[in-house]
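Example 5.3 — Glucose-6-phosphate 1-dehydrogenase
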Amino acid sequence: MDAFLSRTYYINGGYDNREGMTRLDEKMKHIEGVSKASRIFYLSVPQEALVDVACNIGDKAQAPQGWTRIIVEKPFGFNSYSSHQLTQSLLSKFEERQIYRIDHMLGRNLIENLTVLRFSNLVFEPLWNRTYIRNVQVIVSESVAQTAKYSDGYGIIRDIFHSHILQTIALLTMEPPISLDGEDIRNEKVKVLRSTRRLDPADAILGQYKSSSGDKNEAILNSVGPTYCAAALYIDNARWDGVPFLVRVGTGLIKHRVEIRVQFRHVPGNIYRDNIGINIDLGTNELILRDEPDEAILVKINNKVPGLGLQLDASELNLLYKDRHVLVFLNFVPTHSYEHLIHDVIDGDNHLFMRSDEVAAAWNILSPVLDEIDKHHTAPELYEFGGRGPVGAYYLWAKHGVPWADD
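Solution (predicted structure tokens):
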């Protein structure tokens, strides 16, 4: 730690202080000497200061010999227009390959494993289409203990849905890239995002948790944006036409979990239908990719219950990471997803970072709902803090013929 601290420095300069940025550049040149050194700038600054800081770096502090990369934190704008203005400002000083828009939730193991699971296992890729998949559910549920604080005025749609949710769906549904190169992967992701139907406000349920004390409800409602969003998305391409992608993302809920559930279609003419039970949905095969609370891959299959008679039961093939990789976990030094992503920036691996055209395509998907909120001041449905979320979400699932997946 002492060795690390001996190589850290602090220079005081305002957000739009060109003189301060010049002093920073001079300090770095002194440290670098004659070496061919590269520079990474992590712009952990308020959104309103982002353009000034980035432009001053672009003008005064780029590496004279090596490469320069800047890391920008979400949210990437407030809507399509503000995001476009921000993108134009960044591109006026930097090339696209220098810009890394970071979302720490994309540094999770689950996200990195999506493409591995799909493209390195023959058992999944042939089934990965509308012929076999009935629906997909993406769930990000934060319990009372895990509840995060969202920026005033942004809310959960702009903070999580725009980046994490849509990036997860893009990685889950994209066509096979020609290589693992970041640009090849981002090319496929943007195709999926541009094929995704704009979100109809009628297919989105907004919610906001309320205090158990009635007199605080109004204060909460006026101080933050939506804390819950359930939505039905559709991808209008040959692979996914007609398959509903149901999203549930919320905070202040009863259960903490982050998972993707891929529900397959019923077996045509299933001769065991009468042996499954009254609810045929209970016999639906399902692939569950779970990140929290315990990282796991689960596959639901139908299996004969031991004993006399012929009764079927839905069983889970369970790959629990902490059991399967026990030696790795015993010797594992916990790392944060930020470490994973910053390591990618150092390596120049940009496949988990949104490109400018991805950002624009994502805002285009969400614009109808955001416009409805802004123009008509749509009030979110209140739900109990520590509850299951808005009741409207259950009706949304029923509207699209999707069984509500819950433990």
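Remark. The first helix runs from residue 2 to 5.
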